Amino acid sequence: MSQFDLTGRVALVTGGNRGIGLAIANGLGGSGASIMIGARDRAKADAAMEELSGRGINARFTPLDVTDQDQCTAAVEVTVSAFGRIDILANNAGITVRKQPEEFTLEEWNRVIATNLTGGFLCTQAAFPHMKAQGGGKIINVGSMHSIFGASHTAAYAASKGGIVQLTKTIAVAWAKHNIQVNAILPGYIESELLEKARAQVDDLEERVFGRTPAGRFGTPDELAGAVTFLASDASNFVTGSSVVIDGGYSVMG
Question: Which residues are catalytic?
């Protein structure tokens, strides 16, 4: 059996009804995992499940607003009830607000931090007792290029994604003794709804990004699936606390 085979494994993917989250669900499901999509938008989730089912992936949906602790707990419990276990948690749900720092309202700041950082923490906490009881698990947090770079209009987003990297490291240290590996992926500029909004709000975004990216293009969501599958599989059993950069070389350019 391949080290990358996820047959019999169960994954909860937050924000898994579109974009990067759906690509993660497709990647994990394509390697054999059963998928629980946790998201707010039921219509998008129905379309996502139709896509996953069309590929022969066993997928279900549970309503989830990651800013609500009770819903995070319920999503994990529904996953365990439906499939009997939870082996993989992909914390992908995220939002952004693009403004100069002095223009942020407290509500906007809190909403971004609550969704991108606190939400991942709450889902991780909820998954822990199940993973511990079954002898291990995999947690994959979705960070960003803004985990390591700054931009004048991403104060809350960058703070939340930088926090994801540190959260990943600390939980990896705390739970290694329970055979739970915790890692992050740091996508660069990936074709998504967030990128479409950025194109509309940031002048010359494409020219600026392509000029720094050796690959000379934006990435596609499906190009994240391989790294996530690796981090969810037995092939990464000695990898924990790491952040895998997936950016076409953007971060290594001088």
Answer: 157
Domain range for 122? 10-247
Give long-range contacts, CB 8 A cutoff, 24+ apart: 71-77: 72/119, 72/122, 72/123, 72/125, 72/126, 73/122, 73/126, 75/12, 75/14, 75/36, 75/38, 75/123, 75/126, 76/12, 76/123, 76/126, 76/127, 76/130, 77/126
With the C-alpha atoms ordered 106, 111, 116, 119, is the resulting torsion angle positive or negative?
positive
Total domains, the chain: 1
The predicted model scores a pTM of 0.95
Residue 116 lies in a domain: yes
Tell me what the mean pLDDT of segment 174-198 comes to.
Answer: 89
Q: Which domain CATH number covers 37?
A: 3.40.50.720
